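2024-03-11 09:14:02 INFO queue: dequeued item YhhN-like protein, len=217
2024-03-11 09:14:02 INFO validating residues
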Amino acid sequence: MTMRYLSPIFIAEVICFIVALAIIWKDKNAFGKVITCYLAIALVTEEAAAYLAIRGIHNLWLFNIYIIFEISAILYGLYHCIKKYVSAKPIFLISLGTIILTYIFFLVTQSFSHLNTVTITVMSVIFTLFCLYYYYLLLKDESFIEIRTHPEFWWVTGVLFYYFGSTMSNLFDGLFTVKLIGFATLRYCIYIILNLILYSCWLYSFICRMKQRKLHS
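2024-03-11 09:14:37 INFO prediction written
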């Protein structure tokens, strides 16, 4: 039972949250505080969902609530990274409106006890496109950027890997239902790997931000 609580994802989230609290929470801009709060919410959701699952209680409604915070935090993070290159507010508002309409459509057509897969797919596609747009803007930028130590680049890279991978996993869901070890399906193992990539990239991003702040101090 303890192992269910201490999953690889939970451990990665704890480490990432602690580092975020120690590093980016101190930033003057809102990005650091938004992402740190989001990581705290992700931690609570992960453990609450595990607690409910262990006791055989339905928990998909919990993830439907969590999605709201996920949409808000990731969209804001992407906006923070892209606004340095272009005036991005209109396209982000349109994207947010599209996701909200999708969520409302789910509420009208399905029970809240079902996982909101439509909204998850739509937001994942939108997040992936914004990540690719960020790379395009980065390539067009004439100023020199050291990619290896650029915090925004690694934060966006984590988002791209996770949401592109999640989209592919959802589209080919039927291929990943085979069980590998005990209750763990191939889909679950892919989900763990995607989370580890996401939090590893974010962790490195936070470390790059710390080094960047020291250089400018």
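2024-03-11 09:14:37 INFO annotate: Strands lie at 179-181, 184-185.
2024-03-11 09:14:38 INFO item closed
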